[in-house]
Write a structure and sequence with these properties.
Strand content: 25-35%
Number of helices: 2
Order of helices and strands: EEEHEHEE
Helix content: 10-25%
Number of strands: 6
């Protein structure tokens, strides 16, 4: 019996993991992207501002996606962790710059604390390879 292929993903264009995990793991055609915070390549938060952190976290995610031939349209699910749920609406404005159509499914939560005292963390699940969109609600 042939096994399912698992590939560890790490790109130098996104900050390294800050613990015992990888930036992403691809299993078959599904990529699981670890939570991204608003860190630059040196491992420092870009700002204490939640909007700047959200933008950087999504840019970091984009580099991970790109490393596997994907883009934001490949993302089918995200989870957004916020230090303050009151930032939800403002973060949506940044989020919409990256996810412009066929929005992924999403959950958003307030977290008691995030790594490096970040204000936001975003993880994602993406599909590697072509996606055929079906707009018929009966299918």
């Amino acid at each position: 019996m042939a096994g399912i292929v698992r590939k560890i993903v790490n790109t130098a264009k996104s900050p390294s993991a800050i613990g015992p995990y990888n930036q992403a793991v691809v299993v078959d055609r599904t990529m699981y992207i670890s939570g991204q915070i608003g860190m630059d390549l040196t491992g420092n938060l870009v700002s204490q501002d939640v909007l700047a952190q959200a933008e950087q976290a999504l840019k970091n995610m984009g580099e991970i996606l790109k490393s596997q031939g994907c883009d934001y349209s490949s993302v089918v699910k995200t989870t957004v962790l916020l230090a303050d749920i009151n930032d939800f609406a403002a973060v949506n404005e940044v989020y919409k710059k990256f996810f412009v159509t066929k929005y992924p499914a999403r959950a958003a939560y307030q977290a008691a604390a995030l790594p490096k005292n970040a204000r936001i963390e975003i993880e994602a699940i993406a599909v590697v390879g072509p996606i055929v969109d079906v707009d018929d609600p009966k299918l």
